[in-house]
């Protein structure tokens, strides 16, 4: 008898729906078995994991009955005996290897008998135990970062943050087994299974291995990334609502990469896997996130004479990027670097020859200690890099600096609040305040550690270029709703900063982009000539009709608008703005009270906001403990301004607060999402 219910309750594993014992390391569990004729003192237990269990590698332990539990080794303490059965309390050390174990028992008095197998159990990390590397003293944080199956991910851009729900579902069905098989499919395991398994006591090691396994690069991992804007042959990254479907699909296909992922999908799946294994984990969104491909803590962007954003460098500034933070101690670096660690499963740059990233200590990033393991220079650049904007002439290959900015990158770094559906800003945990001397000192320290201060960089702008002062300033103002289906109205505001007349020729473009700001389709262009009296400000309205951008828009609903001003006798001025358009709203209503094992009706309401028909409408619904799997409903086409009411039934099977997630797609709108909390 594995005492599944009592052990699960004591080990915070009750949410797993498994017939197998699942316990956490460094904590005792009870087993009772019968059929032993021997005095209990003569029993020896064997716990072993991995393909080649060995005492040396700490993947096998042999232990007899002792009077008290031991902290540092496996041990067994007699609880009670009756005429034909015996109850034993078994404890594992708090640094035990995690994974699936075989437990056997042998009687020492009869030499000949071979060990009798008692079965298998799964051992996980234990954030509730103060001796565990992943110990998290705050119980509410343990609940959120290990046990919570619903999350909120932030997206959009720095001017316009939006969010959507996600079903991590780490305790559902077969997810634990899929997570364990993920470890057994890693490159490290394939190269040397016994050594790989022996390192599975270390959250640093597992975190790093899993950042490689969640992307398909190198190892046929879970998700294939695609940032092209064309997602044929798979599911558009924005249409997923949870990790379960992705992990199940990966297993069902014989572990072939699932198509397609982008950063938040990689991060959400990694959250599921790490929470499942017991490592406290959360998703983090960084707005205006730098991808610094050449490790110089600088991102270069190039524009042609017409103001088109050129895709000619590996460097880029993403509207947002999502990664993970996991909580564990860093015995390799020292106590001041323990706590939140950055892990990133999105394949951006190779580390150690494969696409993996982290763990990078968040404290090390804040203090500019970029020489510490792992991948600190890349993460430091994501939140701190300087930006250089260049004009590039493809005919001559000549580039001219337009301007540079050191305060653009790394803004509104966001995560979900503990126990609430709110956004919490953690920017100050990544860096000192922008513009402060401390922040610049840390930036210089990081440059120095990377050897950038001392060597001449021929690609860097000269001090003269950096110090040039423009004659005019400009900005784009929004003048109207930012919604898919409505015309886009902007105002270009130009101001003369000098006390003499200035004339400028202004080339304007608008491109649809993916959220990484990679240009996909040109939508619009125009040019104007402008004369500004001394200190004068002028406004130029711009209208981009829905009919002009509708065909070109990507599923990210993002448009980049640029005005490159060629000022007579002065330096060029670049004005740009990234626009994220909101999808129309969709509403969920629960009609009646939700009770366990009782049917309840749910209605989803969507109104077509545009003056043309929308077709190919599909609603997908998921929610742990509310319905099993994913409900997909084909919805009839909707005429202009028509309202659709979609009804379906749920039969909840657990009490408590649950989240229902819906995703509505059609030919004109991609992935309209919302969620609703349902109290069962």
Uncertain stretches:
none
Structural class: alpha+beta
Q: For the CA atoms, what is the radius of gyration?
A: 29 Å
Helix content: 10-25%
Query: For the record, what is the CATH homologous superfamily label of the largest domain?
Result: Transglutaminase-like
Tally of strands:
36
| Main beta sheet strand tally, sense and closure | 8 strands, mixed
> What's the number of structural domains?
4
CATH architecture of the largest domain: Alpha-Beta Complex
Reported by name, the CATH topology of the largest domain is Coagulation Factor XIII, Chain A, domain 2
Strand order of the largest sheet: 1-8-7-3-4-5-6-2
The rough form would be described as: globular
Distance between the termini: 32 Å
What is the overall number of helices? 14
Average of the residue pLDDT scores: 95
Estimate what percentage of residues fall within beta strands.
Answer: 35-45%
CATH class of the largest domain: Alpha Beta
Question: What are its keywords?
Answer:
single chain, 680 residues, alpha+beta, Immunoglobulin-like, Coagulation Factor XIII, Chain A, domain 2, six-stranded antiparallel beta sheet, 14 helices, globular
Provide a brief overview of the structure.
The chain has 14 helices and 36 strands.
């Amino acid at each position: 008898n594995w005492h599944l219910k009592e052990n699960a309750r004591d080990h915070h594993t009750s949410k797993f729906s498994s017939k197998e014992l699942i316990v956490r390391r460094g904590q005792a569990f009870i087993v009772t078995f019968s059929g032993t004729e021997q005095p209990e003192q003569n029993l020896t237990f064997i716990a072993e994991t991995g393909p080649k269990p060995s005492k040396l590698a700490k993947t096998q332990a042999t232990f007899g009955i002792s009077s008290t539990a031991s902290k540092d080794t496996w041990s067994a303490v007699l609880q009670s005996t009756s005429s034909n059965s015996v109850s034993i309390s078994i404890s594992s050390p708090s640094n035990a290897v995690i994974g699936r174990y075989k437990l056997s028992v042998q009687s020492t008095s009869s030499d000949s008998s071979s060990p009798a197998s008692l079965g298998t159990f799964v051992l996980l990390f234990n954030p509730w135990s103060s001796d565990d590397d992943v110990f998290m003293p705050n119980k509410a944080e343990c609940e959120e970062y290990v046990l919570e199956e619903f999350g909120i991910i932030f997206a959009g851009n720095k001017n316009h943050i939006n969010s959507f729900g996600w079903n991590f579902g780490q305790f559902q069905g077969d997810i634990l087994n899929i997570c364990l098989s993920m470890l057994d499919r890693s490159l490290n395991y394939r190269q040397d299974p016994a050594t790989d398994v022996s390192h599975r006591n270390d959250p640093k090691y597992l975190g790093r291995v899993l950042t490689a396994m969640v992307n398909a690069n190198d190892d046929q991992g879970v998700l294939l990334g695609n940032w092209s804007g064309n997602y044929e042959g798979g599911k558009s990254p924005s249409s997923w609502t949870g990790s379960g479907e992705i992990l199940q699909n990966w297993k069902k296909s014989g572990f072939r990469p699932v198509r397609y992922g982008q950063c938040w999908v990689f991060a959400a799946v990694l959250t599921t896997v790490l929470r499942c294994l017991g490592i406290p984990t959360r998703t983090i969104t960084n707005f205006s996130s730098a991808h610094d491909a050449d490790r110089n803590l600088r991102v270069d962007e190039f524009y042609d004479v017409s103001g088109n954003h050129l895709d000619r460098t590996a460097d880029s500034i993403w509207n947002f990027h999502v990664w993970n933070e996991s909580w564990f101690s860093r015995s390799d670096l020292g106590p001041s670097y323990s706590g939140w660690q950055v892990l990133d499963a999105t394949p951006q740059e190779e580390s150690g020859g494969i696409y993996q990233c982290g763990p990078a200590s968040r404290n090390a990033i804040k203090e500019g200690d970029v020489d510490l393991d792992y991948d600190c220079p890349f993460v430091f650049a994501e939140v701190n890099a300087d930006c250089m904007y260049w004009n590039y002439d493809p005919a001559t290959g000549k580039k001219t600096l337009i301007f540079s900015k050191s305060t653009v990158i790394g803004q509104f770094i966001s995560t979900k609040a503990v126990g609430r559906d709110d956004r919490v800003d953690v920017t100050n945990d990544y860096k000192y305040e922008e513009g402060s001397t401390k922040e610049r000192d840390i930036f210089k320290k990081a440059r120095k550690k990377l050897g950038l201060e001392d060597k001449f960089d021929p690609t860097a702008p000269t001090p003269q270029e950096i110090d040039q002062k423009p004659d005019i300033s400009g900005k784009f103002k929004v003048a109207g709703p930012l919604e898919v289906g409505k015309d886009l109205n902007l105002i270009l505001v130009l101001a003369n900063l000098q006390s003499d007349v200035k004339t400028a020729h202004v080339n304007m473009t608008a491109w649809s982009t993916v959220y990484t700001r990679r240009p996909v389709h040109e939508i619009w262009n125009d040019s104007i000539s402008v004369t500004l009296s001394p200190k004068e400000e002028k406004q130029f309205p711009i209208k981009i009709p829905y009919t002009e951008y509708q065909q070109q828009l990507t599923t990210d609903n993002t448009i980049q608008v640029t005005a490159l001003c060629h000022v007579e006798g002065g330096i060029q001025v670049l004005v740009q703005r990234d626009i994220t358009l909101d999808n129309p709203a969709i509403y969920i209503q629960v009609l009646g009270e939700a009770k366990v094992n009782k049917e309840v009706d749910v209605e989803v309401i969507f109104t077509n906001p545009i003056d043309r028909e929308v077709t190919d409408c599909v609603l997908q619904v998921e929610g742990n403990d509310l319905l099993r799997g994913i409900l997909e409903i084909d919805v009839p086409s909707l005429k202009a301004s028509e309202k659709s009411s979609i009804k379906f039934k749920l039969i909840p099977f657990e009490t408590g607060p649950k989240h229902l997630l819906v995703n509505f797609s059609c030919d004109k709108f991609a992935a309209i999402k919302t969620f609703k909390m349902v109290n069962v």
